[in-house]
Design brief:
This protein is of the alpha/beta class and 346 residues long. The protein has helices at 5-14, 18-33, 36-44, 48-59, 71-82, 113-116, 132-141, 185-194, 207-216, 262-265, 282-287, 290-296, 310-321, and strands spanning 63-67, 87-90, 98-102, 105-110, 123-127, 149-151, 175-179, 199-203, 223-226, 229-230, 235-242, 246-249, 255-260, 273-276, 299-303, 325-331, 339-345. It folds into two domains: 47-154, NAD(P)-binding Rossmann-like Domain (Rossmann fold, 3-Layer(aba) Sandwich), CATH 3.40.50.720; 157-345, Vaccinia Virus protein VP39 (Rossmann fold, 3-Layer(aba) Sandwich), CATH 3.40.50.
């Protein structure tokens, strides 16, 4: 992918701290080259010691075993495979033993943990399971050296995703827009900071998740949940569900959803904080909030990872709408997902 150098430099120059510059540069490097070393560097901002060790082992030609063939394990395996590392998956769950299909490519049979320990001494094990202590003990009991075992711990920063930047903190009395409400957890977290008297507008187009949001937020009298998506205008669009929870606007979608422009839906409301995680619809949703952003200058927390071009097109759009915004970037997962751009009016 060809990147406009002048545009990327403009965004880089706007960034406020070293972490933001590193996250932006690493993600931009990855989408422009597909070199997994950039992706490892991006993830290193989330779990520094772990990903430095993984990168060192990758450069030394070690083989890898991902222990735990779930969501995180599969995506970490994808990074390693893109880096040409010989990679296996291992699990103690009988349901996961068999063929692992990863991004429509079959990378072979998922081994039992015991089988994986026969691969050789130049093998490192990365535990991504729900029971890391037991898996670590099992590997040690099977004579795997401790120096060859890494554990994917949860980073506490992930718990404050969207509310992580000091300059972008929630304030008492904020009015919050949660675009892509999912199960309501982000708005519930908002209320922990802002207090129950604050107002929140939640937009979730997938009906079952909309119901989950309503149920989870029913104790907050000032929270209003819409069974709609955000777009640049009112429309009815095709929507596709994946894995029962990951839905997005798509021409190949199996059902239709209502979408609205935030400027029209909340006309006359004073909005102070907008969070967007809309599975690739962020660009159009921002266009639909043009007047709010230009006139009210709310704090923004926008996901910039669903499409490769999001890492530069979304900050470009935000700076066009309000040139006085200062931008921050943070990454919140051990895989390619969950890169967030924050914008705060100077």
């Amino acid at each position: 992918m060809l990147i406009n150098t002048e545009l990327s430099q403009k965004i880089y120059n706007n960034l406020t701290d070293d972490i933001s510059r590193r996250v932006f540069s690493s993600r931009l490097g990855y989408v422009s080259t597909l070199n997994s070393n950039f992706l490892l560097d991006l993830c290193d901002t989330y779990a520094p010691n772990l990903f430095k060790n993984i990168s060192d082992c990758l450069n030394k030609g070690f083989d890898f075993v991902i222990v735990g063939a779930g969501f995180t394990g599969l995506r970490l395996g994808y990074i390693l495979i893109r880096g040409n590392a010989r990679t296996w998956f291992a699990d103690n769950d009988a349901e996961n033993i068999g063929n692992i299909v990863l991004w429509e490519k079959n990378y072979g049979r998922c081994l039992t943990v015991e089988e994986s320990t026969r691969l050789g001494k130049n093998t490192v094990y990365i535990i991504c399971s729900n029971n890391p202590a037991c898996d670590r003990k099992q590997l040690i009991d099977l004579s795997v050296p401790m120096k060859n075992i890494f554990v994917m711990h949860s980073n506490p920063q992930h718990a404050i995703q969207y509310f992580d930047i000091e300059q972008c903190m929630v304030a008492q009395g904020d009015t919050f827009v949660d675009a892509g409400g999912y199960n309501g957890e982000t708005t519930k977290k908002f209320y922990q900071y802002a207090g129950k008297e604050s107002r929140a507008y939640v937009f979730e187009p997938e009906y079952n998740q909309y119901l989950n949001c309503q149920d989870k937020l029913k104790c907050f009298s000032n929270a209003q949940v819409f069974n709609k998506g955000l777009w640049d205008k009112a429309d009815v669009l095709r929507f596709k569900m994946r894995n029962g929870y990951d839905g997005r606007i798509s021409e190949s979608g199996d059902h239709e959803i209502d979408v609205v422009a935030l400027d029209e839906e909340l006309e006359g409301e004073k909005i102070t904080f907008i969070k967007m995680d809309t599975e690739g619809a962020e660009f159009n949703a921002l266009l639909g909030a043009k007047r709010i952003i230009q006139n009210q200058k709310p704090k923004l927390a926008i996901s910039v990872y669903h499409k490769n071009e999001d890492i530069y097109l979304l900050p470009e759009l935000v700076l066009k709408l309000n040139p006085n915004y200062k931008l921050f970037f943070r990454h919140y997962s051990p895989v390619h997902c969950d890169t967030v751009m924050y914008a705060v009016d100077k």
